[in-house]
Structures are given as C-alpha cells and as structure tokens.
Amino acid sequence: MPQREVRAVGASFLAGGVSPHFDVAMSCIFYKTPRAHAVFSQLAASYSRASDRPIPKLKVKFFFTKIPLPSKPTLTERACGRRPCRALTSCVQHVASHFQGEQPDPGASKITVYRLHLRNPPEFRTLRRPPQTAGQIIFIMKELGKISQKSVASDQVSMIEIDDSAAGQRIDNFLLRVCKGVPKSHIYRILRSGEVRVNKGRIDAQYRLELGDLVRVPPIRVAQPNETIAQAPVPSADFKIIFEDEHMLVIDKPAGVAVHGGSGVAFGVIEQMREARPQAKFLELVHRLDRETSGILMLAKKRSALVNLHEQIRENKMDKRYYACVHGEWASDWGRRRAVKEPLHKYLTADGERRVRVQADGLASHTVFNLIDRWPEYALLEAELKTGRTHQIRVHLQHLELPIVGDAKYGDFALNKALARANAKPGLKRMFLHAYRLKLTHPATGAPVQFEAPLPAECRSFVAQLNELRESQNGSNPETTPHG
C-alpha cells in the first residue's frame, strides 16, 4: 500500500473520533519500520494537545506481532478526499481491536457515512455533517469567542465555518482578526501561496466571505511570550451608554482611555467592553477617538451594521462635531467660521513616535471651525469634520497657531505645564477636545438619528474659570456657552 494511502486511512479513523494511532497502526502493519514508535509518539502528542484527552496506550505486543488482514480489501469511495484506499470496514475494526481507547464513531467517518448514504438515505440525512477533510479540527463559528480566536493560530490545520458574524468580511481582514499575534506579512503570504482555502478552492485577499463558507487555515506557529512575564488581565468596564439597540452601541468615552490595545497600551475600550459582555457574539469599533479625546464612540453589534456605518463614513454621510478650546487669538477677519483644507502626512519622529504634519503631498483633509466663545488668549470652537484623518483637528489648529489646550503632542508645552499645576487658575489637566455630537442614518431602519454627549466636568470647570477671569477684568458677559 502506498504511504499516502496509509495516511488517508489513518486520517479517516481520526475523523471517526478516535486517536491518530490508527495512522501509526497502518504504517506498522504494512511497513513495520523502526520509526513507527517515534511516529506514534509524535502523533500521540499532537492528538493530546488538540483534544485535551489522555493518550490511549498502544499494546506493546502490537509492535512485535504481525496482524493478519483480509486479502485485497477495497473501498469504492475516496477516503478523506484522497485516492481510494485498500481497506474495508472489517479491516478497520480488526486493527482497532488491537488498541486501547475509543472505537470509531459510526456516521462520523467519511467512509461509514458514504456506505450509510447508499444503504439508508433518510437515516443519513439525520446524522451530523462530517468534516470536509478528515483529520482536521473544525471550528464552528457560532460565536468568535476568545478561545476559538486563540486556537486558530496553532500548529494544527483549522477549518472554520462562517456564520453571520463574519459574512461579508474580506478574507484578509478576517484572518487578521482570528489569527491573533500573527504578523500581517505572514497572513498575506499564506493567502498568496494558496494555503488558505475556501470551500476547497483557492481565493485571493479580496475575497468576501459568505454565510456557510468553510475556510481552511494552515498550521501557523506564533512566537510565545516569555512565560515568566505575567500578562495583566483585562478588567471589565461598562462605560456610560448614550444609546443601544441590537445593531449598535454608543458610549461616552472618558479622556485618558485608549479605544483599543496597541503599542504601549495593554487594552482599551473594545477589550474592556468584550470582557464586560462575554455573551456578545460580535462587538467591533466603528471609528476611533484619540486616547486623550473624550466623547461619543460607536460600536457595532452586527457585521451588517458595521459595514453600513463604514460606508456612511466613506461617503461623508456622518456629521461629527467636536468642542475644542484653543490658546491664541481668533483673527477678526475670519468672522465666526473658518475652513481649513490642508493636506496631512504621517511620519515618525527620531524616537519612533507617530506624528502628523501639514505637507503638500499629504492626504486631502478638510475641517471647518466655528467660533462659540472667546476670551483673552483663549477661544472655544466647534470643529466640524469633513474628512477623518489621524489627528486632523489637532494638526489643523496647530497650523492656524491655535493649539488645543492640554495637547501633549501638538500644543503649547509650557502652557500645558502651567495649567496642570496645583491651584492654577484657570487650570486643566487634560486635553480640551470632546466629541459632543454625531448625526447619522441608522444602519437597520434607515431613520436619521442624533447622539450627544455633554462636556465633561473638568472642561466645564475650565470654561467657567475663563468666564470668571473675563468678568473680573472687564465685567463683560460670556457670548455663548456650550450646553452641558
């Protein structure tokens, strides 16, 4: 018997619910090589890791005894999707009797299912669906929890059945999500090489998954972190909820909290929300806010909602408004409205920190600033985003020489230090940038909706201090104050 057919028979036993020792059994029967024990040990270890079961022990006499088999056994159906194997069910049971451990599960093996289908079609239809490729682990994605996401990137081949939480997503983005810790370059390499299959066929990185697709993910080794370094657990946290239904969730994010984990940040809002809601099948960020920015943050609870909301963002159908308090003089010839259309370019500082600056060959960016109130050396503005570039409001205001109060990256560092001192008046220990209003179309109903988040207490206090200083200097009244 050719080696590949022996392997196919062994894989069919594994599909039937028994250990991979049958693969070794067939090798020992037909080859009786000295390497049989080493192969047995290797497969036994793999099976133990994959199934969390004790290893069924092989009887020692098997290694020294020749097992007689039926003469010229044949099989009319392909085993495990490979070439026909010379083995009958009687042969299978005969070999199995020489092992300690579980026996094949009738109906689970592709061989048995085929015979049952010919003999009794109605009974065949009541059985559970067997694996598409025997010997592989099937991950049914009824929910993409932490366990399945971590299990995909392993030294085992994974088969993932797509449900509505992943339907419509591009295959490359899907793999980046479920293969935690795997570099992006490696994900695209296995896609280009054809190691990732969908419904047994090759696909490219632009393929969009459909409900019921069966995705084959090859073995992926991930560098393990140093076990001596304890990983900090993600604390669950429920943030102030502005709106929630079965499609979306809108929260009021506090300043100082990242929206997701990243470089230098162990976890963020999305990780904490998932920890607080372990029953949630799907929870993803719709957009981002800078760590020091507070205000409205949207999360999608269904992939269909996420796709719809992303489309609204791309087509500029969302109306996002921010409050920003800046340091400097608002020019009188600007009136009460100033549009800024300066291209923005990302770059790295000498320390490796990511920054953004105005640059001619940068990405087109558009922000409209509306004057709400002003004081000597300060102004309160409403920022209206027309595009959504990284740090767009902060860099455009820096370009106007009106840096945001408390901005540690693009602001007046000496001023920020003075404002953060104890008993400073006015005093502020955060960046004054707050996403206060968001208008959009509901992703499911199509109805227009609007969400608002009032100014945080520390920002309202800063505005009140500016009003007091102005009144004490000239006795004037504030022009306008934001709701809060």
UniProtKB/TrEMBL annotation:
<feature type="active site">
    <location>
        <position position="290"/>
    </location>
</feature>
<dbReference type="InterPro" id="IPR020103">
    <property type="entry name" value="PsdUridine_synth_cat_dom_sf"/>
</dbReference>
<dbReference type="GO" id="GO:0000455">
    <property type="term" value="P:enzyme-directed rRNA pseudouridine synthesis"/>
</dbReference>
<dbReference type="InterPro" id="IPR006145">
    <property type="entry name" value="PsdUridine_synth_RsuA/RluA"/>
</dbReference>
<keyword id="KW-0694">RNA-binding</keyword>
<dbReference type="InterPro" id="IPR002942">
    <property type="entry name" value="S4_RNA-bd"/>
</dbReference>
<dbReference type="GO" id="GO:0160141">
    <property type="term" value="F:23S rRNA pseudouridine(955/2504/2580) synthase activity"/>
</dbReference>
<feature type="domain" description="RNA-binding S4">
    <location>
        <begin position="169"/>
        <end position="228"/>
    </location>
</feature>
<dbReference type="InterPro" id="IPR036986">
    <property type="entry name" value="S4_RNA-bd_sf"/>
</dbReference>
<protein>
    <recommendedName>
        <fullName>Ribosomal large subunit pseudouridine synthase C</fullName>
        <ecNumber>5.4.99.24</ecNumber>
    </recommendedName>
</protein>
<dbReference type="Pfam" id="PF00849">
    <property type="entry name" value="PseudoU_synth_2"/>
</dbReference>
<dbReference type="InterPro" id="IPR006224">
    <property type="entry name" value="PsdUridine_synth_RluA-like_CS"/>
</dbReference>
<keyword id="KW-0413">Isomerase</keyword>
<comment type="similarity">
    <text>Belongs to the pseudouridine synthase RluA family.</text>
</comment>
<dbReference type="InterPro" id="IPR006225">
    <property type="entry name" value="PsdUridine_synth_RluC/D"/>
</dbReference>
<keyword id="KW-0698">rRNA processing</keyword>
<dbReference type="GO" id="GO:0003723">
    <property type="term" value="F:RNA binding"/>
</dbReference>
<comment type="function">
    <text>Responsible for synthesis of pseudouridine from uracil at positions 955, 2504 and 2580 in 23S ribosomal RNA.</text>
</comment>
<dbReference type="Pfam" id="PF01479">
    <property type="entry name" value="S4"/>
</dbReference>
<dbReference type="InterPro" id="IPR050188">
    <property type="entry name" value="RluA_PseudoU_synthase"/>
</dbReference>
